[in-house]
Specification:
This protein is α/β, with parallel strands linked by helices and 229 residues long. It has helices at 27-38, 71-83, 96-99, 104-114, 120-140, 217-228, and strands at 16-21, 42-46, 62-65, 88-92, 144-159, 165-174, 186-190, 195-201, 210-212. The chain contains 6 helices and 9 strands; from the N terminus they run βαββαβαααβββββα.
């Protein structure tokens, strides 16, 4: 059968949005606000010891609360939410599936301990496909997905006078595998003043926006028109 290209059309796309920031920056509240603005039934994967329930008087959603964070569990939760007919899935937070109990770093550590070489570099050969499978599940999902991520201070080594190297603070970065932000349509950082700064994005209408105390208007005025084409 001959290969045939067709005109690319964007219609009713599903959002992939990531919110990163330190504790107390309002990630959970903002994620639920955005989820409500997208419309439909909301499911929440809560890794934060029931923190999402604290907002149940303000938002309507169903929740599962986890205390072990194998990435395969999140993949299963994504598929379960699709099957159950939810429209939006909030993952609060995606960071736990990286560094939490049962997360990818622990999987790498376990593989390393079982191996004869004790080489963690070799362990990544087995662990990386698990991470890739999780990313594929997020990208291919039929749901809108909003993921929060904890953030840490990023440092780089900089050469000073005399050739000495010293760390230089370079802002914040999400606690997940490096480059995770590029898997999302919109990636935004939040600070302890509840200010959201849009970083990497495919949606030109929100590129570079700085919003103090973001509301549902961010979704309804900018994101939904972009998704609906």
């Amino acid at each position: 059968m001959p290969i045939q290209f067709v005109k690319a059309v964007k219609y009713q796309s599903k959002l992939r949005l990531a919110l990163s920031g330190p504790a107390g920056s309002g990630k959970t509240w903002t994620a639920l606000t955005f989820a409500g603005a997208l419309g439909g039934k909301i499911a929440v994967v809560d890794t934060e010891h029931g923190s999402a329930r604290k907002y149940s008087d303000l938002f309507s959603f169903d929740v599962i609360e986890l205390d072990s964070f194998n990435p395969e569990t999140l993949i299963e939760a994504i598929h379960a939410a699709e099957t159950a007919g939810y429209d939006v899935l909030v993952v609060d937070s995606l960071s736990h599936f990286w560094y939490g109990p049962g997360g990818l770093l622990e999987i790498v550590d376990d593989i390393t301990k079982r191996s004869k070489s004790g080489n963690s570099y070799t362990a990544w050969k087995d662990a990386t496909p698990i991470q890739n499978k999780l990313i594929d599940a997020i990208i291919a999902s039929k749901l809108h997905i909003i993921a929060t991520m904890r953030a840490k201070t990023k440092y780089v080594l900089e050469e000073r006078e005399g050739g000495k190297m010293s760390p230089k603070k370079m802002g914040m970065e999400p606690i997940q595998r490096e480059g995770i932000e590029f898997e999302f349509d919109i990636e935004a950082e939040m600070d302890t003043d509840n200010t959201m700064v849009v970083g990497k994005t495919r949606c030109s209408a929100v590129n570079g926006k700085v919003i103090r105390k973001p509301t549902a208007a961010f979704i309804t005025e900018f994101v939904l028109p972009w998704l609906e084409g």
